[in-house]
């Protein structure tokens, strides 16, 4: 799994670059419950982007079912949620993504994470446990905290759909 | 009140190339009655049937998707009514079999057995909403229900069922998912 890539607090993470990477991977649908980490830099621009179809849902586990359903028609989806919603959806992820080996791509905002730290060293308990939970479930995860990390996104999505498997892309700072 | 298997017998006569998403007791009964590649049972977590149905419907707007939900299941994912209404897939028909209990988990009653699912769906914004408690009425109208521009919702008021044999390993086996995908891609 990825190590943290920066210890500087002033490093940029550009939302437009993340969205470009998502599009590059062939994602057509964004499934989301709003997350304050990604609200301004990702969700608002995505909502205005005519090339992406945004499906707003009420609870994060709905996204797992919707993404699975879309995959039968080879439609790629990105689930854009907060880590709290990821935790709330673990049973759906366990069954659909892990046991049924469906391509479930999750972009997870780490609310409260200190970008200069590794998530596992966060002062926030909920952030600290995300990577260990992914490891325990066998879900690959990639930390995206600065622009140079954005290059991880498209290959990770491609691999998820090629292998029919889940992946978690962890957003470690608020994208601009 | 109707028997669910009688409702499904009626429904079966109208099903051709639709994807049918069914969960738990409804899945057991539908699969016994009408095994086919275009059935989808891999819900994964209780309540997610409607969400899988939404994804299937959005992915293939040219093909009708029929969800056979359970009442306990839908109560676990009531927000999906709002999400589905907002996404507004014209090709989604969402039935809930309302037998007032958690049939697959011992038959315990719902917290409110009289919950008004049709009213909830209407408030959520479904384009068409129906409720059936008499088989004759369902027989007369099911073709119309399936042909309407969706999202369509229909409550089926049914009795508690005869005991079922739950073979989940068979319902959820990977080969069913492979067969569904092949069928949707026209390779089977």
Low-confidence stretches of chain A: none
Order of helices and strands of chain A: HEHEHEHHEHHEHE
Q: Largest interface, per-chain counts?
A: A-B, 31 and 33 residues
Output the structural class of chain A.
alpha/beta
> What is the chains' assembly state?
heterodimer
Radius of gyration of chain A: 14 Å
**Number of DSSP strand runs of chain B:** 8
Shape of chain B: globular
Number of helical segments with 4 or more residues of chain B: 9
Give the DSSP E fraction of chain B (strand runs of 2 or more residues). 15-25%
For the record, give the distance between the C-alpha atoms at the N and C termini of chain A, rounded to a whole number: 25 Å
**What percent of residues of chain A adopt helix (DSSP H or I)?**
40-55%
State the shape of chain A: globular
Number of strands of chain A: 6
Strand line-up across the major sheet of chain B: 2-1-3-4-8-7
Low-pLDDT residue spans of chain B: none
Radius of gyration of chain B, in Å, reads 15 Å
Spatial ordering of strands, largest sheet of chain A: 2-1-3-4-6-5
Mean pLDDT of chain B: 95
